[in-house]
């Protein structure tokens, strides 16, 4: 096996595939990256049995073949190589990397012990890559981080006709984002027969994948038939030269229909960016887990934080309808996560009062991106 490849292309390929490597593993071969050279192309693959990533790049192949090497070690080497062409070759059990007079040698791992690559699931449809990356980032902030509750660490995709809905919740907040997508003819027929197609995907993994694919123009989304609505099976994302297959999580998120029913709520509107900046300022004096209080009046909102002599306050223009005044309080980190996930200039807040639900929505495009927060009970 011998090939030559541009240093920039090699760094990109190894870096992309290395994202699928486990941080720690008792199985040494799972720390490896599989390099396959042939017909003017180099493919680099990595897997931790939950995620499989593969990327192709152009290469001048002298002799085709395969080799499995320690992934993170190869990535470290690629980062320090000088710019220009890189020659790689397998010589016995030693893999050499040479560029600009610098050479490295790497021991190889047993290729026969490496797990077989998963079969990419059939394509269900396509979605705009940049819009998908934005939507995933807007929703992933609400996903849980507690691995003892794996379903809540997931981001749920619901595919219904020409609409994709993304949602996530950690029990204390719930984010939902709708966007357009183009389903394949078979997927449209299947959806019509069995209703909405759902998949629960690890949120952190999907966030990394969507960011990497954001400049690909279009992302193909593939689903296998395993798992059904309850989870399991796999889901694939492919754009340009990059392909990732993720194992779906078991279970599904609780429904949000009743939670998002805000009948009888007062409605406030405020500039989103200004509110986020004000929250950052007043939260400086908040104690650990201390709330930021928002006191809405017909033409303004007063933000307050802190206790005793250590306090901060700022008033902003706002409108309030449906009540003379409403006071709510939120965990400042949760509130900032929600505010900064919106791209809208003006924000619409539906408020039920202290200790109850608050629904944030973009005033210019209601219903496209919504974020539910629980107000804390103690306001003083």
Description:
The protein has 380 residues and is of the alpha+beta class. It folds into three domains: 2-113, Roll (DNA Polymerase III, Chain A, domain 2), CATH 3.10.150; 123-247, DNA Polymerase III, subunit A, domain 2 (DNA Polymerase III, Chain A, domain 2, Roll); 266-374, Roll (DNA Polymerase III, Chain A, domain 2), CATH 3.10.150.10. The protein contains seven helices and 27 strands. The chain has helices spanning 7-18, 71-80, 129-140, 185-194, 203-212, 272-282, 332-341; strands at residues 2-6, 32-38, 41-47, 51-58, 60-63, 65-70, 85-91, 94-99, 102-107, 123-128, 154-160, 163-169, 173-180, 182-183, 197-202, 218-223, 234-239, 242-247, 266-271, 292-297, 300-307, 310-317, 319-321, 326-330, 346-351, 357-362, 369-374. The strands form four sheets. It has a nine-stranded antiparallel sheet. The chain has a nine-stranded antiparallel sheet with strand order 15-11-12-13-27-26-25-19-23. A hairpin with a 2-residue loop joins strand 20 and strand 21. The radius of gyration is 25 Å and the shape is elongated. The model has no long low-confidence stretch (mean pLDDT 93).
Quick tags:
380 residues, alpha+beta, DNA Polymerase III, Chain A, domain 2, 9-stranded antiparallel beta sheet, 7 helices
Task: Break the fold down into its secondary structure elements and pairings.
Blueprint: E1 2-6, H1 7-18, E2 32-38, E3 41-47, E4 51-58, E5 60-63, E6 65-70, H2 71-80, E7 85-91, E8 94-99, E9 102-107, E10 123-128, H3 129-140, E11 154-160, E12 163-169, E13 173-180, E14 182-183, H4 185-194, E15 197-202, H5 203-212, E16 218-223, E17 234-239, E18 242-247, E19 266-271, H6 272-282, E20 292-297, E21 300-307, E22 310-317, E23 319-321, E24 326-330, H7 332-341, E25 346-351, E26 357-362, E27 369-374
Antiparallel strand pairs: 1-5, 1-7, 2-3, 2-6, 3-4, 4-18, 7-8, 8-9, 10-14, 10-16, 11-12, 11-15, 12-13, 13-27, 16-17, 17-18, 19-23, 19-25, 20-21, 20-24, 21-22, 25-26, 26-27
Helix pairs in contact: 1-2, 3-5, 6-7
């Amino acid at each position: 096996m011998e090939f030559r490849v541009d240093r920039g292309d090699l760094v990109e390929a190894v870096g992309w595939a290395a994202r699928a490597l486990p941080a720690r593993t008792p199985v040494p071969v799972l720390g490896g990256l599989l390099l396959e050279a042939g017909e003017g192309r180099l493919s680099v693959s990595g897997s931790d049995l939950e995620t499989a990533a593969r990327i192709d790049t152009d290469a001048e192949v002298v002799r085709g073949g395969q080799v499995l090497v320690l992934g993170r070690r190869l990535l470290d080497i690629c980062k320090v190589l000088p710019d220009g062409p890189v020659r790689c070759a397998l010589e016995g059990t030693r893999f050499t990397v040479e560029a600009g007079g610098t050479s490295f040698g790497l021991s190889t791992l047993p290729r026969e012990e490496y797990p077989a690559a998963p079969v990419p699931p059939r394509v269900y449809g396509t979605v705009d890559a940049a819009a998908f990356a934005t939507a995933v980032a807007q929703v992933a902030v609400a996903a849980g981080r507690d691995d003892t509750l794996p379903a809540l660490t997931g981001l749920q995709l619901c595919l219904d006709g020409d609409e994709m809905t993304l949602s996530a919740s950690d029990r204390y907040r719930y984010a939902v984002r709708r966007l357009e997508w183009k389903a394949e003819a078979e997927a449209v027929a299947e959806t019509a027969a069995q209703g909405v197609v759902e998949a629960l995907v690890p949120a952190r993994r999907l966030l990394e994948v969507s960011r990497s694919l954001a400049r690909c123009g279009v992302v193909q989304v593939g689903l296998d038939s395993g798992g059904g609505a309850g989870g399991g099976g796999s889901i694939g994302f492919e754009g340009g030269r990059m392909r990732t297959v993720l194992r779906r999580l078991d279970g599904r998120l609780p429904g949000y229909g009743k939670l998002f029913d805000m009948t009888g709520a007062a409605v406030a509107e405020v500039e989103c960016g200004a509110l986020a900046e004000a929250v950052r300022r007043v939260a400086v004096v908040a104690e650990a887990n201390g709330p930021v209080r928002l006191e809405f009046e017909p033409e303004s909102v007063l933000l307050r934080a802190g206790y005793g002599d250590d306090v901060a306050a700022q008033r902003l223009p706002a409108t309030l309808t449906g009540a003379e005044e409403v006071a709510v309080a939120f965990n400042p980190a949760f509130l900032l996560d929600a505010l900064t996930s919106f791209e809208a200039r003006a924000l619409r807040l539906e408020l039920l009062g202290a200790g109850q639900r608050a629904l944030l929505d973009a005033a210019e495009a209601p219903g496209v991106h919504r974020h539910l927060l629980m107000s804390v009970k103690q306001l003083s």
